[in-house]
Specification:
single chain, alpha+beta, Glucose Permease (Domain IIA), about 25% strand, about 180 residues, 8-stranded antiparallel sheet
């Protein structure tokens, strides 16, 4: 019995060291993924049928978290718009503090924000704190509506993108750091 336990400890230690290095590799690989937009729960997926959006489907992902939670840029880019999106009146649209970021090849929108912490022309980096989560505009509670959109951005807050085909799935693989 004593001899077997002496043999197990080096094997166990070797396995733990190997697991540690695999974890380090995974953390490093996560830096190549888009940064998670908010530390919360993605509760309403892209593409779900809806009757309250012109396209007839949910054009992004809804991420639920506490009001005021930090919202992060998913990738490096340039802020091209901060302000209302589809805001036709009180309780409509995406709220007055929506953000559009151009990442070169695709854009992201961050909506229903309580506050925007960036301005047009700002260069943002992956994981940078850009807004505070809110419930502005047409919203049933505090959440982030994240969209990934193909260019171009029209610059018109009433119709910011050319067609429903411009909206693409933001994905489901995120880096935490």
């Amino acid at each position: 019995m004593v001899r077997r336990s002496r043999l197990l400890w080096p094997l166990l230690l070797t396995a733990l060291i190997a697991a540690f290095f695999i974890l380090l590799q995974q953390l490093d690989l996560s830096r190549d993924r888009p940064h998670i937009p908010v530390y919360g729960v993605m509760g309403f997926a892209f593409g779900e049928p809806v009757d309250y959006q012109t396209c007839g489907f949910h054009t992004g992902q809804d991420w639920f978290a506490a009001p005021g939670a930090r919202i992060f840029a998913v990738a490096d880019g340039t802020v091209v718009y901060v302000g209302p999106l589809w805001l036709d009146g009180p309780g409509e649209g995406r709220g007055p503090h929506a953000i559009v970021i151009d990442h070169g090849g695709f854009l992201t929108t961050y909506s229903h924000n309580r506050a925007a912490l960036v301005a047009v022309g700002d260069q943002v980096t992956r994981g940078q704190h850009i807004a505070e989560l809110g419930s502005e505009g047409f919203s049933r509670g505090p959440h982030l509506h994240l969209e990934k959109v193909l260019p171009p951005f029209t610059g018109d807050w009433r119709q910011p993108f050319e067609s429903c085909r411009a909206y693409v799935n933001p994905g489901d693989v995120w880096g935490w750091f």
